[in-house]
Amino acid sequence: MTFDPETTTFLIAGPVRIHPRVLRAMSMPSLNHRGDYFHGIVAEIRELLPVLFGAKGHQLVLSGSGTAGLEAVYSALVPRDRRTLVLSNGNFGERTDQIVRRYSSRVTTLTAPWGQPLGADAVATELAAGDVGAVCVVHNETSVGLANDLAPIAAAVRRSGALFLVDGISAVAGIPVDLDGWGIDAIVAGSQKGLAAPAGLALVHLSDRAVAALHPGTFYLDLAAHLKSLEKNDTPWTPAVPLFLALREALVLLREEGLARRLERTHRLADATRSAVDALGLSLFPDRAHASDTVTAVRNPDGMGDPELRKVLEREYNVLVQGGQGALTGKIFRIGHMGIADWPDLLVTVAALERILGKAGRLPAPGAALRAVVDRMP
Ligand code: PLP
Q1: Helical (H) or strand (E) element with 172
Q2: What CATH architecture is 9-16+259-374?
Q3: What is the pTM of this model?
Q4: Ligand 1 — pocket residues by CB below 6 A?
Q5: How far away, in angstroms, is 192 Cα from ligand 1 center?
Q6: What topology is assigned to 20-257 in CATH?
Q7: 110 CA → ligand 1 middle, Å
Q8: Residue 270 and residue 282: Cα distance in Å, rounded?
Q9: CA 342 – ligand 1 centroid, Å
Q10: Percent of the chain having pLDDT more than 70?
C-alpha cells in the first residue's frame, strides 16, 4: 500500500478527518456575503455555536486559523497597565507567551516542564503577589498530549478577579470544558479539531465581563467590530464563505451526535489508545494522570525514530499520525483521536503499529494491543 491522501487513515493531532457531508457543504457556487442567503447561514451558525461551547455567551467566528482567535483575544483583553500571567508547559504555551508579549510589557510566565501539569498552587502564589489583570493558559497542550486541570486553576483566578483567557483549540468538543462553572472569560476553539470542520476558522466565546473589558487590539481581528456586525448576521470584512458553509454542517453533525456523546466517544478512544500503547510496550510522554483525551503522545521506542516508525506507517500502511514539535521532534509521535475519529481508524493504526514493531522484534505480546482496543469498543 502507498500513501494516498484521499483514503488515508488520518489521525494527526488536527486537522482531523472531515465528514463527507461537511466536504459537500463547501461545494456551492460563490455566494454574496452581503446577501440574505449568506446572512441566513450566519444566523444558523450563531444559533448552533452554543452546541460547540456547551454554554451561551458572546460567540463569534473569525476567518483565520486558531492562532488568529488567540491573537484577537490577547490583543484586546491583555491589560496594558497591569500584569498578565502566562502559564506554559508545552509548545503552545510558549506560543501564548510570544503572542502576549507583543501586546504587553508586563508579562510573568509560569512554566512547568513539557509533559508535566501546571499546578494551581503555583498560580495562586503568583496571583497573591498582586496586580495581575489576566491569566492565559492552554487547556489541552497538543504538543505533549497533556490536559491541564483547569478547574482548580480557574478557582484561583476567579478569586483574584483577573480575566481568565483560555486556548481551547484542541480541547473544545474533545474534553469537558465548563465555561460558566469555571468562570472562563474567553476561550478559542479551532475549526479543525474537535468540531471536525476544515482548518481556517477560529471560534471565540466571550463572557459579559470580557466584552465589557475589550480594548482596541488588532484591526482585522477586532472582536468588538465582529460582535457588532454579527448582530446583523454579518462580518466586518469578507469572510471565508466556503468555510462558513462547512462550519454550519459540522455544527449540525455535532448537534445530531450531541456534545456529551462526542466527548464520551473521544474519551473511550483515548482510553483504548493508551491501553494499546501499553500493550505495544511503548510509553506515554506526558504524566499519565493528565494524559489528554484528544491526542496521545507516545515516546518513540529506543532506536526507532520517525523514519523507522511514522514514515513506515505512512508509506506502507497509508496511516498518518503526527510527529513531535520543537525539542520533541523525532522523540515522540502523536495520535489524534478527536472530532469524528472512530474505532476503525484506531484499529487500523494499532494493527499497523503491531506489525511494524513485530517485524522489528520489538513487540512484547502479539495481538495484545489490538485486543486492548477491541475490549474497549462499545
Ligand atoms: N493552540 C493549540 C493548543 C493547538 O493545538 C494549536 C494547533 O494545533 C494552536 C494553538 C494553533 O492553531 P492554528 O494552527 O489553527 O493556528
Answers
A1: none
A2: Alpha-Beta Complex (3.90)
A3: 0.98
A4: 14, 65-67, 92, 138, 140, 142, 167, 169-170, 190
A5: 9
A6: Aspartate Aminotransferase; domain 2 (3.40.640)
A7: 20
A8: 15
A9: 22
A10: 100
